[in-house]
Structures are given as structure tokens and as C-alpha cells.
Protein: Apoptosis-inducing factor 3
Amino acid sequence: VEVKIEVVIPEKERSKEEMSPNGKTSPLIYKVNGTARHYHLEEHPIASNPYHNPKDMVEASVCHVKDLENGQMREVDLGCGKALLIKESGEFHAVGHKCPHYGAPLVKGVLSKGRVRCPWHGACFNIGTGDIEDFPGLDSLPRFQVKIEKEKVYIRASRQALQTQRRTKMMAKCISLSNYNLSSTNVLIIGAGAAGLVCAETLRQEGFSDRIVMCTIDRHLPYDRPKLSKSMDSHPDHIALRPKEFFCTYDIEVLTEMQVAAVDVKSKIAVFKDGFKMEYNKLLIATGNMPKTLSCKGREIENVFNIRTPEDANRVVKLATSKNVVIVGASFLGMEVAAYLAERAHSVSLVELEHVPFKKFFGERVGRAVMKMFENNRVKFYMQTEVSELREQDGKLKEVVLKSGKILRADVCVVGVGAVPATGFLKQSGINIDSKGFIVVNKMMQTNIPGVFAAGDAVTFPLALRNNKKVNVPHWQMAHMHGRIAALNMLAHGTEISTVPYLWTAMFGKSIRYAGHGEGFDDVVIQGDLDELKFVAFYTKSDEVVAVASINYDPIVSKVAEVLAAGRTIRKRDVDTVISLSFRTGDMSWLTGKGS
Structure:
């Protein structure tokens, strides 16, 4: 018996046009007070489909059909690239072997119920279609056809697909932009982060061919925001989620440096800060958060930063090199910035009100282990204190004065003391906002106003994992899923959100992975060695595991995420069994069914 894998491209995708419905794509322009504003971006048509040329195909024998048991995956080499061969329920499947997000080897991930979950950041892909089913990331996996002949496994695939290891799902285009009033749109998306972009892409993937406009206060197209603190010297073009050509090709219009000042939900009009008004039919609010600032004396001194844009991050790196840096706040952003600058700056000091970093999120024991890692890398902590004053010399920062009386030399100060939802412009709109400023939505990301949806860091929503408790989950992965659910329900699909929160942080070459929602946990069960930074921590509330975190224990977090996603309950007493079954043997049979 032979297994052959061949790239399959739907006929309608082979024949779809590469040009926009307007013929040759050209920028759309409107004028406000005589100033021209460009909707569309530079014209660069996307390359034609790479799978047309049969000469591009490669075929190779990779294994015997009996080499794989049910529930097993194998990374196989075709000479010019690799594929992931999977056997589940007696059937073979083949897809790309790398996660399109950051390139994680999926063979080290988790296979369960027809999908494979990335071991690094939790993205999920359907093994039959290659389609992305949970996030982060935008692209799906290439799928290869499998044939069985003569007990040998042959794979036939496109060289291009093997090299790129990603596939953008087929999308519709706008029928005729030239017929539209420039001051009206069918869908308006306020915010161009992950939630906004995924919403726009999902609409196109679902065949929506009307006008879509995104607007953002940023000067850049949507970019990989987590890298602002993890890879601070990244150029904006290098962290763009999509190239400029993508937006032109699929008629997703982007207004940069445009801030919405108010929304009239009765008239369905968004009013911009410069006076321009745009009518909409459906609205998505995905404005995210705004960083908190210090309230002490001297907060306006030069070289005091919030990290909000690539320019902020780049500027901090440049100024901090071989200088003294003070970071205020042991938040994820603060700790990641400290780790990134530790080898570049002369000194890095971190000021925090709590006595242990991450105590509320990871617990005291894990927090102390992380703190020790930082201290071993020359980061000095000043805990249980706050900043009382920033002092300057010649207009630039010189010293940070703490309430404890300690004075720190500082050439640069980075503030990471949390964030607030960017929803101030909605106060008089009639949209339901809670006491903390978060937009309240239901499981379909709908607000209390018909046709108005919200997504991302600025919302609270019912989390199925915690019995539909209204929560705010400001994670990159969750923003992606919010955007997708909002788009589907703009199209009246009636889809409810059901996903397990998943996040990661990277510091000094170590990655902490986390899945679930541990807010209010009352105990932590730890397996492994905290001192060696090789452990897994289970967070429990009333004997139920509500979250898990790990360092150097892959893919345990992704496996627990699959358990929780399947509706299973893990009890504290079951932790040893979970580790034994899932981590040591890879047995996922306990995923079947519901309940404990």
C-alpha cells in the first residue's frame, strides 16, 4: 500500500482573478477640508497562484503504511521540503509541518479529534483541510492529497508549498468600489489590531463582497504588537501582519492616523477627530487599550516612555544602549522590556508595588523563580515601592526617586503599570460600558446596540471555560478569535465564542506558556523543578484546574488546552494522571466525551 500526497486546489480558486473588481487597483481618495486622504495603499498585485505549474510538483517515498499507528504524526522529508503525515481513525492526512505563526514544529504539538494544536502558542489546524481553527496567526496550512498504494507512503507536493508552509484562505473581493459614496461603508472597523484584521479577513473568506473600511490611530498597517516588548528593535515593515499588496488585492481599505471621536448609533455614523463623518451598516469596535501613565512629578520629562508603537520601542532601545534604565511596573510588558534591555543597557532597575513579580497571575512560587532568573541576568528589583518623582537635568531624565527614599540613576524610564480600555469616545454613545470602561458583549461579540460589535482587549465577554463569567482577556490569541466570531455574526451565522485563552511570554530565552483563565485561583500544584526553570504549574479553584503554565515542559500546556477545549474538567487529584498520560506517553484517549 502506498500513501501519496498531492496538493489540491479548488477549481474556483484556480480561476479566480488576481486583479481587483475595479480592474487595475487604484487608490481611493476623499478630501476633508481640502486635505487628500488615501484609502488604498500602493499598487502591487499579489503573485499568481504558485500551484499552477505541474513541473513544480515533487514526489517521494517516505515510509511504510504500517509505520504510523492511529493518533501518530511524523515529519517526513521530500528532499526539497517537509510535510506532516498524520494517521487518525484509520485515515491518513498530510499538511504543512510548521505552524504559520512563528514556525513551531507541529509534530511536537497535540493531535486530537481531527486537529493539531501548535506546541508553542496554541494555534489549531484542521488536519483534513489545513484550515486554521484557533489562533494566533492568520494563515492556514497547505493540504496535500493522500493516496495509499503497495504498502508504501508516497508524498506528492508542490515545491512552493513545501517551502512556504502556509496557505492564505480564498477570499472574496469588493464588487465595485467605484460605485460607493466615499463617506459610507457597509462595515466599519475601528482599530487595526489582530481583532480588526481577522474580522476583515473572515468577512472576505466567507464571501462578503461589500465595502470594508478599517481605521486606526497608528501610522502603520496592522502589525505584530507582542513584538514591541519582545523584539524591541524590529522595523515596522518586518512585523507587519500583512503586506501592503494584500489590502489592495482584497479591497480592505485602511485609514491610518485617523481617530474616531464619537459614534452616533442611531444614525449609524462615526465622527472622526478631524470632522470627517462616515456612515456604516455594521460596526466593529476593536480599539484595544491605552497604557497608563505615571501621576508623579516630572512625568513629562524627556526620555520617559510608554511602549505604544514601533517607534516607541525603537527609540527606547537606541537611548538605553549602554545607559541606565529604570522600568516602572513588573507587568508582562515591563518584564519583557527589562529582559530585552538587560544585555544592552549599562544597568536595568525594575520598580514594582508588589513583593513578587506576576504574583496575581502565576502565583508567588513561580513569580519568585522568574524573579531569580532576572536577578541572575543583572536586573535589580526595587519591590513594594512606587515612584514619587522624576528628576531632570537639561530637560532630560536624570534620576528616579522612589517613595522608599532610594534614588536611582536613570537615562531612560519605561512605564509598564497597566492599561485602560480605549473607549472614552463611546461614553455618550449608548453602547453598554462597564464601570472599568470595558465594552460589554455577549457570546457572539454583540453589544447592546443592534449591528454594533466589539472585540479584543477593550471588551468583557462570557467565558465558557468559567461558566460564562464575564471576563476581560487581553491576550493576542483571544483578540484573533474575537474578530473571527464578530465577523461570522455580522453575517448572521449565530456563532458563539468557545475557546481556551492561551498566552506566552519570552524572557532570556525562556518561554512561559499559559492556557486557561486562572483569575481567583486558590492553590497552585507544581510538578518539576522551579530552580531549574523546568516545570508545569496547575492553577486550581475549588479543586478544579482553571489554568496551567509551564517552562521547558512542552507540549503540556497545549495538551491541557485541548482537554479544556473538549469540555473536560480536570480535578486537583487528577494532575499526576494528566502529566503521566499526556506528557510521558502522548495518550490523549481521555479527551473523549464530556465531564470529569
Q: What stands out?
A: The first helix runs from residue 11 to 15. The radius of gyration is 25 Å.
